[in-house]
Amino acid sequence: MTSLFINTLGPLGWTLLTLVPPAIIALYFLKLRRQPLEVPSTFLWSRTIEDLHVNSLWQKMRQSLLLLLQLLFVLLLILAVLRPGMEGEQKLVGDRFVFLIDNSASMGSKDAEGDQSRLDEAKARVLEMIDQMDSGDVGMVVTFSDRANVVQQFTDNQRVLASKVRSIEATERTTDILEALRVASGLANPGQSSFEEGDIQVAEAKPATAYILSDGRFQTITDFSFGNLQPVYIPLGTEASSNVGILAFSTQRNPDKDDQLQVFCRIARFGSEPSEVTANLYFNNELLDVARIALDPDDGTGGAQFDLGSLDVGQLRLEIEHDDVFPADNIAYAAINPPERAQVLIVSEGNDYLRFALATGEIRRIADVKIVSPEYLNGEDYPKEAASGRFDLIVYDNCVPKVMPEANTVFFGGKPPIDEWVFQEEQVLPQVIDVAQSHPVMNFVNLGNVSIYKANPIEAPPGATVLIESDQGALMTIAPRKSFEDAVLGFSFLVTEEDKTFFNTEWTKRLSFPVFIKNLVEYLGGVRSGQGEMSIRPGENYTFRSSGFASEVHIRPPSGRVRTIVPTADNLFSFGETDQLGTYEVREGSSDEVSRYFSVNIFDAEESEIQPKLEIETQWETIQGQETWLPMRQEYWKWLVVLALIVLLIEWYIYNRRVYI
Amino acid sequence: MAKTNIVSDLLSPELLAQLERMELVSRKIFRGRMKGERRSKRKGTSVEFADFRPYVAGDDLRFIDWNMYARLDRMFLKMFLEEEDLHFYTLIDASTSMEFGSPSKLTYAKQLAAALGFVGLCRTDRVRIETLGTSLRKPGPILRGRQSVWRMLDYLNGIEAGENVPLLEGAKNFCLRNQGKGILVLVTDLMDKAGFEPALRFLSTQQMDVYVIQTLAPVELNPAEQIKGDLKLVDCEDGDIAEITVSRPLLDRYKRTLDAFVDGARTFCSKRGMAYMLANTEIPVSHLVSNYMRQRGLLR
Question: CB A63 to CB B261 under 8 A?
């Protein structure tokens, strides 16, 4: 299949071309009619050329040097037209190309030839392909990690394409090809990009070839049809690559000893080696602990727990001592954040059970609770506190504020002053039939032994989650509001009928009640995020609320300059420049103290699994990768043309200057 | 007017002034026919002292050196050199091949002949200018004295190229016409297919002081400038054809052939007591006369 020559001319072209050498020879002999020139005497000339006849063949060749050069020139042109090339059957298909280059974290694996990363290899191959593009061919470059990025729109300028490809940089992000495919197919299949019905297709469908350069570590492609887009998958990386990666790394307070920290990690092996790794735990860059972690021979995973004792605020780093081609996942970051207590306001007429439930040791550890009477809502302080977000959670027990505060709220027996919340007609003795125990608020809450006298089934705004379902309807619902959540209980704990106050339900006496209260404070008070580590994936947005209503916060990434961001509405900060792995420091306002840390880790089995997939699976088909990469055909015709031009130049020089060899 | 033109054509006034101070030198002393300005082998009556000899009875008493007699008490006769004229011949090759060059080799030869002839005329030598093709019956005029300059120039002006006579034949004819002794300056390009040797050998046997001046045009000395490409060279005299494709080695080879030819002529001449000189027509005649010829001893 590998042919040295590719014919580029038709029969007519060849006929014309083969006529050229005879024409040159004919013209040469016609021209050879030597110019007569009268000289004083041929005496010396005759003598001179006498002995030249001796070695006449060489002399004749020398005399016909111009002819030979001209013939050589034509020969070189003919060779160039034949497009000689070496070892390559790799040819570009079509005239429109989309180069989809995976620049996710796993593409940083250095298992390509010459210690190059997969991304370097991909770039090199794309550059080769760009080099092969004919004039008029257009190409487009798209990179994809967890998002797609059009590096270069369709252009026929190969230099621009090449420079854009060279400028592609590796990221530490996860992989999602779908967006990139949609971008690529948007131009090939205009129909897919027009979402509105009745959209007239103005653009003509233009078939294109999509070269996907990836290690294939992404989800099965669903909800996507290639249509006019012809995918060519070029898998990168060697199958033999083995890798060890950290999949999880978290800190937690010891449930038994409050002031002690525990660190957990989970490590997975991808490939056959090794069976055991050494993990080093650093605290603020000082070695704190070392563990040998055995990896399960079957599934290749292993874990470790470090008991750290009492530690101050700081950064934790776990490093695995394993020399593999994908080092990025051998280090994990976590941070011990300053203890952050939830600020809770309870507005209640005085409910002993609620007070008791809020007085447990667990809640005292995680939250500052302030209990006020409903009159407080009409006081001077409340509107300011509610509007400024001073509290993380406000519990309205049997009372209702005039406007919703800038905080998470819980309503016991009351309805938020929002139209979407509707209390239906009061029902007597509703039977609890389901509790959404998977929701953090209802964790470990068992209502099987609870009966309720009167309750109002709730109609909640869109997006709400029913937490307690009864035969009469939803009894407790949680629904989002801006960046907050409101939980509403459809019954109160005490009812007053005919001047007698009695318990509406015996839930308050059950063991599940303090658990429920603790869950509420922990979940809606934002305690969970404040307590342990915060880890996000590279490129993800990190959103948080400042504890002290700072007008701006300064975020110091692991390297590079400090970024300053200002909050959006309701005291919410959002930070998107999370491409670096490591621990980020957040300082509020002008404070020098680090108010919180958050870490960016890969923690993705798909990325750590660096063995390339040899095929891409879509919903309907499987795209086989090109198993062996053949170098692009090395074309020599350009050199031949250059050589021919040099020959022509020499010929011209000799003809004009009469310089003969 | 015409005469002025001739003068300015063949002899420039500056050159004339230069030439007036010169004289022709013969390495042999030849007997002339008339009393001239040349010393002769014969002792005679000039003012130039030659030798003493003892007095013999019958000698002219006028030539006895009386001072010597007073000192030595012996009679010595003072002998003076006889001064006589010199026969000076210029033989010009007027073949077609001499027409080449700018100025042409023939013009160059004429200028040379005029210059040398003028020197001779100034010294009252007997000057005769002929061409190789001069027929036996129409010899060139014999010129003597300064007043003959115009005649000489007239005659030179009348010489035209086209007398394609073999070198040997021309030399023989010349010798038949001019039996006497003297100086012979042969101006030619020596390009004779039969070779120059027989002719020169013949001349060398004559009792003449022979100078061979080979005039060559730049096209012959340095063909690279004018001869290029694929050519059919045509000999202007016999129509002989040589087909060449000019190339660097060919030019080098030509150069070697030319050098060998010139060298051969020089060696041939020097072996036979003849003086040889190569004249490139690019070098002005005045330069040749005032520098080269004085070095060679033809002029003083």
Answer: no
